[in-house]
Design brief:
By secondary structure, this protein is mainly β. The chain has one helix at 87-91, and strands spanning 7-10, 19-23, 37-41, 54-61, 69-74, 84-86, 99-101, 104-110, 124-129.
């Protein structure tokens, strides 16, 4: 994975940033199979301008968040089983661990059991996007 981002975007918790195929084939209709189209980064809309996935997630400031943990899914996580990080992992004064190098699917703020919780405060989380999709995920 490259260490250089092409674009930086603000991320929101609970949003699915998976690469999603959007058909532009007017002949096939919505249910018809087609290969004419493009991939956007985001299930509901395109996030950012570059077409590459989010390759790193950076927790810049989550000190005002009242939730105690963060759950992060990579593109390969097909179910609800994903790692749960304690908030202190990212906010420790002696820690440099605020960046996770992962092809991001989504993240949520949660409790220690992984049950989604409201952020409860302002936060800044940055996504590092690549310019184009890599040959392999």
């Amino acid at each position: 994975m490259t260490q250089t981002a092409h674009e930086l975007i603000l991320l929101d918790d609970g949003v699915d940033y998976s690469p999603t195929f959007v058909s532009t084939d007017k002949r096939a209709g919505r249910s018809g199979a087609t290969s004419i189209g493009y991939h956007q980064i985001g299930v509901d809309q395109q996030y950012g301008f570059s077409r590459g996935p989010i390759a790193k997630i950076e927790f810049v400031d989550i000190s005002a968040v009242t939730a105690t943990h963060v759950k992060v899914w990579g593109l390969g996580n097909e179910d609800d089983d994903a790692p749960i990080y304690p908030k202190a992992y990212f906010t420790s004064a002696t820690s440099n661990r605020n960046i996770i190098p992962v092809y991001l699917k989504k993240f949520i703020f949660c409790n220690s059991s992984g049950v989604e919780a409201a952020a409860g405060g302002a936060y800044t989380v940055i996504g590092h996007k690549l310019k184009t999709a890599p040959l392999t995920w």
